[in-house]
Design brief:
The strands form three sheets. The protein has a nine-stranded mixed beta sheet with strand order 5-4-1-6-7-8-11-10-9, with helices on both faces. Strands 14-13-12-15-16-17 form a six-stranded parallel beta sheet, with helices on both faces. It has a two-stranded antiparallel sheet with strand order 2-3. The model is unreliable at 287-317 (pLDDT under 50). The protein is of the alpha/beta class and 531 residues long. The longest helix has 24 residues, at 507-530. Helix 10 crosses helix 15 (410-419). Helices cover 48% and strands 16% of the residues. The structure holds adenosine-5'-diphosphate-glucose. Adenosine-5'-diphosphate-glucose is lined by residues 29-32, 34-35, 168-169, 241, 329-331, 364, 366, 407-408, 413, 430-435, 438.
Length: 531
């Protein structure tokens, strides 16, 4: 029987040890788990192979068997990595080298030969785990930048098997890619697949440019079929990933998500008359104090921005303005542009003091990769900025930023999306960005504005959003202000156009299109060989 074997760094579920010694399964957060999890669940002939996230030294032999069985019941084959392997392959080469380099953060990239050795070792471990279970009719779909050597390793053992590889993050420009000391080996690794997928045509072009530069003897035809000097063909194309639109639209209407939404709206002072009168009284008091004391806050600059004119803010018709909610949902990662975004929000409060007391930013930012120093530094920077903005602009009954660092499951996340009058999605670089799409699905057929970075794949599709350069703090500030002021009719009209596309280009459609293309290119390749 032919099966689909998905291979990725992490499995879609993690096991947590419970107090009674058993294990409970938890759905992993992240783009890949969200995109492919439903496909895996729905297809009984689909097996998922990946790192368990558990070190074998953490548990007894008996536990290990239980863990393996629990995963097997979920059609998952776990791979166990030692701490040394995790350090070199995952924290090291994947997250300290490839991740920053591919996101144009080359100054963050470390080129450590020991990490490269461990990356090869762990890719080989994946190959060894897969070899005994692969049938020649299986389709193997390898995911992402962690496993770029795996297609070549499997190809050596299985010359005929159908192999696809998809990159979920950007592919950098040829100049940046070439700075990787092992760029040739990495390209050789992925080019052994039959089909290579990227989110956008720009990433495809960058990849083809790198292949042309590093292998001048290769050629590429207009259909994106690369021919290598040894005669091997690999097809390359763009497959923009989608979301399970109906799932998000439906979940946002669920009881729990609606409760969350109402709770957020309540705490942001939407529709609470006594809250408004409190705010108004406090605003007047602040104005009075400001006029008497002058700019006491001038020692608390938000970077080098001008001082807040609180007297203006307080007299700015507190009762006339409708309260608004801004939301964002991210892993705490330096590519997501959180400090820049916070500065833009702070600048908006500064420049448009009429928002004082009237806009609350719900910032969900869950720490990730905490073993990596740059991530810990980012967390400290975000903590500090949130503290400074809240410290500087808060009134007694209003705090501008509601900052949550816990990981939340889909229902509360949808509640947050649904509550947001504006979603602020401003990554400095992103392969696609699913958050932008999920937000729109949670505003199915209704208003809600999206401020979206021009540096993510989603910007190619969601052209009715407020598109911004995420590095341009002024531009983000202005777009945010406009997005908050937009009429519900216009916001709704923009959304309906974008939602029409998202309803068709779903996650299921993405995987079907990729797998169908893979089937076609593999079949074409085989018939060519037979000729
Ligand atoms: P990610 O970098 O993880 O994905 P993204 O596309 O935004 O980024 O997907 C994140 C997913 O995790 C979303 O489904 C979101 O709802 C969820 N999520 C994020 N933060 C969360 C939080 N704090 N709590 C709960 N859920 C949270 C990678 C690439 C992206 C690409 C995807 C899919 O970096 O560019 O879009 O893969 O290919």
């Amino acid at each position: 029987m032919s099966r689909l074997i998905i291979v990725s760094n992490r499995l879609p579920v993690s096991l947590d040890a419970t107090e009674d010694g058993s294990y409970s399964l938890r759905q992993n957060v992240g783009g890949l788990a969200t995109a492919l999890g439903p496909y895996h669940k729905a297809h009984r002939d689909c097996l998922w192979v990946g790192w368990s996230g558990i070190s074998p030294h953490q548990c007894s032999q008996e536990d290990l068997q239980d863990i393996q069985q629990a995963y097997k019941d979920r059609r998952c084959l776990p791979i166990f990595l030692s701490q040394e392997e995790i350090d070199g392959y995952y924290d090291g080469f994947s997250n300290n080298t490839l991740w920053p380099l591919f996101h144009d953060f080359s100054h963050e990239a470390q080129f450590n030969p020991d990490d490269w050795d461990m990356y090869q070792t762990v890719n080989r471990r994946f190959a060894q785990a897969l070899e005994p279970i692969i049938n020649k009719d299986d389709t193997i779909w390898i995911q992402d930048y962690h496993l770029m050597l795996l297609p070549q390793m499997l190809r050596k053992r299985f010359p005929e098997v159908s192999i696809g590889w998809f990159l979920h993050i950007p592919f950098p420009s040829e100049e940046i890619f070439r700075s990787l000391p092992w760029s040739r080996e990495i390209l050789e690794g992925v080019l052994s697949a039959n089909l290579l997928g990227f989110h956008t045509t720009d990433f495809v072009s960058s990849f083809i440019a790198s292949v042309g530069r590093i292998f001048p003897e290769s050629s590429v035809n207009q259909d994106g079929l690369i021919e290598m000097p040894d005669g091997h063909h690999a097809a390359v194309d763009a497959f923009p990933i989608g979301i399970d639109y109906n799932l998000y639209a439906r979940t946002s209407r669920s009881g729990l998500a609606q409760d969350m939404r109402r709770g957020i709206e309540f705490s942001a002072g939407k529709s609470k008359s006594h809250f408004h009168s409190f705010m108004s009284a406090e605003g007047d008091a602040a104005a009075e104090a400001a006029s008497q004391e002058g700019s006491w806050w001038s020692h608390h600059h938000l970077e080098d921005q001008p001082e807040l004119d609180l007297s203006r803010s307080a007299t700015a018709s507190i009762n006339q303005k409708e309260n608004k909610i801004i939301v964002s949902v991210d892993r705490l990662d330096y590519t997501k542009g959180l400090p820049e975004r916070l500065k833009a929000f702070g600048l908006m409060l500064e420049k448009y003091p009429e928002w004082t007391g009237h806009v609350t930013y719900y910032l969900l930012a869950t720490p990730s990769r905490e073993d990596v120093a740059s991530y810990r530094e980012l967390k400290a920077q975000v903590d500090e900025l949130v503290g400074r903005i809240n410290g500087r602009f808060s009134l007694l009954a209003w705090t501008p930023i509601h900052y949550i660092t816990r990981s939340l499951s889909i229902k509360p996340v949808c509640g947050i999306y649904a509550a947001g009058d504006v979603a602020l999605v401003t990554p400095l670089r992103d392969g696609m960005n699913l958050v932008a799409k999920e937000y729109l699905a949670c505003h199915d057929g209704r208003e809600g504005s999206l401020v979206l970075s021009n540096m993510c794949g989603a910007a190619d599709e969601l052209t009715d959003a407020f598109i911004v350069n995420p590095y341009d703090i002024d531009m983000v500030c202005e777009a945010l202000h406009k997005a908050l002021e937009i009429s519900p009719q216009e916001a709704c009209a923009r959304n309906v156009r974008m939602q029409a596309r998202l309803k068709v280009r779903t996650a299921a459609n993405w995987s079907q299109t990729f797998l169908e293309t893979l089937r076609q290119v593999t079949t074409a390749g085989m018939s060519e060989k037979r000729i």
